[in-house]
Amino acid sequence: MSAQQLLAVENLHIRYGALEALKGVSMSVDQGEIVTVLGANGAGKSTLLRAVSGLLPASDGDIRFQGQTLRRIAAYDVVQRGISHAPEGRKVFSTLTVNENLALGAFTRRRMKAEITGARERVFRLFPILKERRQQLAGTLSGGEQQMLAIGRALMSAPTLLLLDEPSLGLAPILVDLIFDIIQEINRQGISILLVEQNARQALSIAGRGYVLETGFVSAGGTSAELLSDSRIQEAYLGGAALGRFDA
Question: Across the chain, where does the E strand assignment appear?
């Protein structure tokens, strides 16, 4: 492991029964980075994040965080080690209040009252609307507010690495811009980010590096500038064309 490497995914295979969803994926995130993962629906992007966060077992390969393997580590222990996951579709607890959702995000730190209070205040500084809505049921929030709550809940465990799965999905353009500004602010506060996002241009505009997943394998990778200038990626992601198979 290099001095700066935080997460290393090494030859990762994930199977759902007979279906192999990830086929030898290798990628990394260094301390302080935003790394984005691009790909069409069904490419394996969410599967990758679920594997990193301990929700899916690997059939082969390894996931290492700060030099230690995460294989066979329970999801709550992955959170305690410093990885939080804001899933696709927000998955907020609709019948609980904003404050209660945030408290659940801090469950692994539930005896650390002062730290939880500080984390909640940091979330409210990032998302002032959540402070206004703190006694409101999460199910009554707008889509944008629910996305803010999902991210805020993930931040309550004080992660070193934040996994974000499609944070702009279904949001109006003005809210997309706001969410991406906040992602950058979270990163400036010292949290590394692994970002799955279909809005390729916006994702690459804030990420330092990226990977392209295609039907379970990495078909391209490099700096954001390299990916933005790649004609294959321009055609598949930046010009609205359907995803084609990238040459090796």
Answer: 5-16, 19-30, 34-38, 60-65, 68-69, 83-86, 161-165, 192-196, 209-214, 217-223
In a domain, 142, yes or no: no
Encoded amino acid at 226, one letter? E
Print the domain residue range for 71.
Answer: 1-82+197-248
What is the H or E stretch that residue 99 is in? helix 98-105
- Structure-token pair, residue 155: 């931040």
Rounded alpha-carbon distances, angstroms, from residue 43 to 111, 128, 156, 161, 210: 40, 35, 30, 22, 15
Q: Are 12 and 25 in contact (CB under 8 A)?
A: yes
Which residues are CB-neighbours of 48 under 8 A, at least 6 positions away? Answer: 9, 12, 14, 22, 25, 27, 37, 196, 213
Q: Is the pTM of this model over 0.85?
A: yes
CA separation for the pair 178, 55 (Å, rounded): 29
pLDDT in tens, 161-171: 999 999 998 88
Residue 225 inside a domain? The answer is yes
